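Posting this for the archive.
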Amino acid sequence: MTFKHKLSARLALLRTVFLIAALEGVAACNLSTLLAALGAVALVLVTPATPSVAVGATLQLTATLLDATGNVVPAQITWASGNTGVATVSTSGLVTGVAAGSTPITAACTTASTTWQNTAVATQIGSFTVQFDATPNAASIDGVTGLSQGAAAVYTDLAVAVRFNTGGQIDARNSGVYAAANAIPYTAGSSYHFRLAINVASHTYSAYVTPPGGTEATIGAGFAFRTEQSAVTSLGNWAVYADIGTHTVCNLTVA
Protein backbone atom coordinates (compact mmCIF):
# COMPACT_ATOMS: atom_id res chain seq x y z
CA MET A 1 0.00 0.00 0.00
CA THR A 2 1.44 3.38 -0.94
CA PHE A 3 1.68 6.32 1.45
CA LYS A 4 -0.97 8.09 -0.59
CA HIS A 5 -3.40 5.24 0.02
CA LYS A 6 -2.56 5.15 3.71
CA LEU A 7 -3.14 8.87 4.06
CA SER A 8 -6.41 8.65 2.14
CA ALA A 9 -7.54 5.84 4.41
CA ARG A 10 -6.69 7.89 7.48
CA LEU A 11 -8.46 10.94 6.18
CA ALA A 12 -11.49 8.81 5.41
CA LEU A 13 -11.73 8.01 9.11
CA LEU A 14 -12.15 11.67 10.00
CA ARG A 15 -15.64 12.75 10.94
CA THR A 16 -17.07 16.17 10.26
CA VAL A 17 -17.32 18.05 13.51
CA PHE A 18 -20.83 19.27 14.10
CA LEU A 19 -22.02 21.85 16.55
CA ILE A 20 -25.76 21.83 17.11
CA ALA A 21 -27.15 24.96 18.78
CA ALA A 22 -30.31 23.76 20.51
CA LEU A 23 -31.73 21.39 17.89
CA GLU A 24 -31.23 23.65 14.91
CA GLY A 25 -28.30 24.44 12.61
CA VAL A 26 -25.04 22.74 11.80
CA ALA A 27 -21.47 24.01 11.94
CA ALA A 28 -18.55 22.20 10.32
CA CYS A 29 -14.97 22.44 11.55
CA ASN A 30 -12.88 23.49 8.54
CA LEU A 31 -10.26 20.75 8.72
CA SER A 32 -9.20 21.22 5.08
CA THR A 33 -8.08 24.77 5.88
CA LEU A 34 -6.10 23.51 8.83
CA LEU A 35 -4.46 20.75 6.81
CA ALA A 36 -3.44 23.21 4.13
CA ALA A 37 -2.01 25.64 6.66
CA LEU A 38 0.18 23.11 8.45
CA GLY A 39 2.91 21.90 6.14
CA ALA A 40 4.34 19.56 8.79
CA VAL A 41 0.95 18.08 9.67
CA ALA A 42 -0.53 15.30 7.54
CA LEU A 43 -3.55 14.41 9.66
CA VAL A 44 -5.82 16.07 12.21
CA LEU A 45 -7.90 13.94 14.56
CA VAL A 46 -10.71 15.82 16.30
CA THR A 47 -12.53 14.37 19.29
CA PRO A 48 -15.30 13.75 20.09
CA ALA A 49 -15.95 12.44 16.58
CA THR A 50 -19.62 13.54 16.41
CA PRO A 51 -20.09 16.24 19.04
CA SER A 52 -23.19 18.30 19.75
CA VAL A 53 -23.98 21.01 22.28
CA ALA A 54 -27.18 22.73 23.36
CA VAL A 55 -27.65 26.45 23.88
CA GLY A 56 -26.08 27.39 27.21
CA ALA A 57 -24.06 24.17 27.40
CA THR A 58 -20.36 23.63 26.70
CA LEU A 59 -18.34 21.01 24.88
CA GLN A 60 -14.58 20.49 24.81
CA LEU A 61 -13.07 19.81 21.39
CA THR A 62 -9.59 18.31 21.14
CA ALA A 63 -7.41 18.21 18.04
CA THR A 64 -4.42 15.88 17.71
CA LEU A 65 -1.93 16.77 14.98
CA LEU A 66 0.04 13.96 13.29
CA ASP A 67 2.90 14.16 10.83
CA ALA A 68 3.29 11.96 7.74
CA THR A 69 4.79 9.12 9.80
CA GLY A 70 2.03 9.17 12.42
CA ASN A 71 4.01 10.97 15.12
CA VAL A 72 2.22 13.57 17.23
CA VAL A 73 3.13 17.18 16.39
CA PRO A 74 2.94 18.97 19.79
CA ALA A 75 2.03 22.41 18.41
CA GLN A 76 -1.04 24.07 19.86
CA ILE A 77 -3.82 25.25 17.56
CA THR A 78 -6.01 28.34 17.46
CA TRP A 79 -9.77 27.82 17.56
CA ALA A 80 -12.20 30.43 16.24
CA SER A 81 -15.94 30.78 15.71
CA GLY A 82 -17.31 32.24 12.50
CA ASN A 83 -20.36 33.62 14.35
CA THR A 84 -20.01 34.21 18.06
CA GLY A 85 -23.73 34.98 18.21
CA VAL A 86 -24.37 31.27 17.58
CA ALA A 87 -21.42 29.69 19.38
CA THR A 88 -18.17 30.77 20.96
CA VAL A 89 -14.97 28.77 21.32
CA SER A 90 -12.14 29.41 23.74
CA THR A 91 -8.44 29.26 22.94
CA SER A 92 -8.43 25.74 24.40
CA GLY A 93 -11.29 24.50 22.16
CA LEU A 94 -14.16 24.78 24.65
CA VAL A 95 -17.34 25.43 22.63
CA THR A 96 -20.35 27.20 24.18
CA GLY A 97 -23.74 27.15 22.46
CA VAL A 98 -25.22 30.68 22.38
CA ALA A 99 -28.23 30.55 20.05
CA ALA A 100 -29.84 28.38 17.39
CA GLY A 101 -28.16 28.73 14.01
CA SER A 102 -25.03 27.60 12.21
CA THR A 103 -21.41 28.74 12.22
CA PRO A 104 -18.03 27.22 11.31
CA ILE A 105 -15.66 26.36 14.14
CA THR A 106 -12.15 26.56 12.70
CA ALA A 107 -8.61 25.88 13.82
CA ALA A 108 -5.45 27.30 12.35
CA CYS A 109 -1.68 27.42 12.68
CA THR A 110 1.09 28.48 10.30
CA THR A 111 4.12 26.41 9.38
CA ALA A 112 7.16 28.32 8.22
CA SER A 113 8.91 27.26 5.01
CA THR A 114 11.04 28.83 2.29
CA THR A 115 7.95 30.78 1.22
CA TRP A 116 7.14 33.81 3.34
CA GLN A 117 3.85 33.39 5.25
CA ASN A 118 2.18 36.72 6.08
CA THR A 119 -0.86 37.51 8.21
CA ALA A 120 -2.27 41.02 8.58
CA VAL A 121 -2.91 42.17 12.15
CA ALA A 122 -4.38 45.35 13.58
CA THR A 123 -2.01 48.22 12.79
CA GLN A 124 -0.01 49.30 15.84
CA ILE A 125 1.66 52.69 16.30
CA GLY A 126 2.42 52.70 20.03
CA SER A 127 3.20 50.11 22.71
CA PHE A 128 1.67 46.64 22.40
CA THR A 129 2.31 42.99 23.22
CA VAL A 130 2.43 40.02 20.87
CA GLN A 131 2.25 36.43 22.13
CA PHE A 132 2.38 33.12 20.28
CA ASP A 133 3.45 29.49 20.58
CA ALA A 134 6.14 28.14 18.26
CA THR A 135 7.37 24.58 17.76
CA PRO A 136 10.61 23.77 15.90
CA ASN A 137 9.92 20.68 13.83
CA ALA A 138 13.57 19.57 13.73
CA ALA A 139 16.90 20.32 15.35
CA SER A 140 19.26 23.00 14.00
CA ILE A 141 16.69 24.84 11.93
CA ASP A 142 16.86 28.47 10.84
CA GLY A 143 13.35 29.83 11.35
CA VAL A 144 12.16 33.35 12.15
CA THR A 145 8.88 34.79 13.38
CA GLY A 146 8.45 38.53 13.36
CA LEU A 147 6.50 41.68 12.63
CA SER A 148 6.71 44.14 9.78
CA GLN A 149 4.85 47.16 8.48
CA GLY A 150 3.48 45.35 5.43
CA ALA A 151 3.80 41.86 3.99
CA ALA A 152 7.37 40.62 4.35
CA ALA A 153 9.27 39.23 1.37
CA VAL A 154 12.85 39.45 2.69
CA TYR A 155 14.47 39.42 6.14
CA THR A 156 15.07 43.18 6.03
CA ASP A 157 11.30 43.77 6.01
CA LEU A 158 11.08 42.56 9.61
CA ALA A 159 11.38 45.21 12.32
CA VAL A 160 11.07 42.66 15.14
CA ALA A 161 12.14 39.03 14.89
CA VAL A 162 12.80 36.02 17.10
CA ARG A 163 14.59 32.97 15.75
CA PHE A 164 15.29 29.28 16.20
CA ASN A 165 18.89 29.31 14.98
CA THR A 166 21.07 26.60 13.44
CA GLY A 167 23.10 26.36 16.65
CA GLY A 168 20.07 25.01 18.51
CA GLN A 169 19.47 28.27 20.40
CA ILE A 170 16.72 30.91 20.54
CA ASP A 171 17.71 34.50 19.82
CA ALA A 172 16.25 37.79 18.54
CA ARG A 173 17.20 40.59 16.18
CA ASN A 174 18.90 43.57 17.81
CA SER A 175 19.56 46.30 15.25
CA GLY A 176 22.14 44.79 12.87
CA VAL A 177 22.68 41.40 14.54
CA TYR A 178 20.92 38.51 16.25
CA ALA A 179 21.65 38.30 19.97
CA ALA A 180 20.43 36.77 23.22
CA ALA A 181 20.86 37.83 26.83
CA ASN A 182 20.77 34.19 27.90
CA ALA A 183 21.60 30.84 26.35
CA ILE A 184 18.19 29.31 25.59
CA PRO A 185 18.42 25.96 23.79
CA TYR A 186 15.44 24.49 21.97
CA THR A 187 14.33 20.90 21.38
CA ALA A 188 12.65 19.65 18.23
CA GLY A 189 8.96 18.95 18.74
CA SER A 190 8.60 21.09 21.87
CA SER A 191 6.29 24.12 22.02
CA TYR A 192 7.73 27.44 23.24
CA HIS A 193 5.60 30.39 24.33
CA PHE A 194 6.92 33.76 23.14
CA ARG A 195 6.01 37.20 24.48
CA LEU A 196 7.17 40.36 22.68
CA ALA A 197 6.68 43.77 24.31
CA ILE A 198 7.01 46.26 21.45
CA ASN A 199 7.25 50.06 21.39
CA VAL A 200 6.91 51.41 17.86
CA ALA A 201 7.54 55.03 18.87
CA SER A 202 10.95 54.22 20.39
CA HIS A 203 11.71 51.48 17.85
CA THR A 204 12.56 49.02 20.62
CA TYR A 205 11.20 45.75 21.96
CA SER A 206 11.82 43.12 24.60
CA ALA A 207 11.50 39.42 23.85
CA TYR A 208 10.77 36.59 26.29
CA VAL A 209 10.21 32.86 25.92
CA THR A 210 8.82 30.16 28.19
CA PRO A 211 10.16 26.65 27.51
CA PRO A 212 7.79 23.72 28.06
CA GLY A 213 7.49 23.08 31.79
CA GLY A 214 9.83 25.99 32.54
CA THR A 215 9.71 29.64 33.55
CA GLU A 216 9.87 32.68 31.32
CA ALA A 217 13.39 33.62 30.20
CA THR A 218 14.57 36.90 28.72
CA ILE A 219 15.84 36.69 25.16
CA GLY A 220 16.57 40.39 25.07
CA ALA A 221 15.40 43.60 26.78
CA GLY A 222 15.37 46.94 25.01
CA PHE A 223 16.47 45.48 21.69
CA ALA A 224 16.44 47.88 18.75
CA PHE A 225 14.34 47.34 15.63
CA ARG A 226 16.27 45.93 12.70
CA THR A 227 18.52 48.58 11.18
CA GLU A 228 16.55 48.75 7.94
CA GLN A 229 13.33 49.38 9.92
CA SER A 230 14.71 51.89 12.43
CA ALA A 231 12.35 54.61 11.22
CA VAL A 232 9.19 52.56 10.67
CA THR A 233 6.05 54.28 11.97
CA SER A 234 3.67 51.33 12.30
CA LEU A 235 3.53 47.54 12.39
CA GLY A 236 0.61 45.63 10.89
CA ASN A 237 1.88 42.29 9.65
CA TRP A 238 2.98 39.02 11.26
CA ALA A 239 5.39 36.88 9.24
CA VAL A 240 7.09 33.49 9.50
CA TYR A 241 9.88 32.07 7.36
CA ALA A 242 12.47 29.28 7.52
CA ASP A 243 15.28 28.65 5.08
CA ILE A 244 16.42 25.50 6.93
CA GLY A 245 13.81 23.13 8.39
CA THR A 246 10.38 24.31 9.53
CA HIS A 247 8.61 25.57 12.63
CA THR A 248 4.91 25.76 13.41
CA VAL A 249 3.44 28.91 14.98
CA CYS A 250 0.03 29.01 16.68
CA ASN A 251 -2.11 31.08 19.06
CA LEU A 252 -1.07 34.54 17.93
CA THR A 253 -2.49 37.38 20.03
CA VAL A 254 -1.92 41.12 19.69
CA ALA A 255 -2.94 43.37 22.55
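Confidence is low (pLDDT under 50) at residues 1-39. The chain has two domains: 3-108, 111-254.
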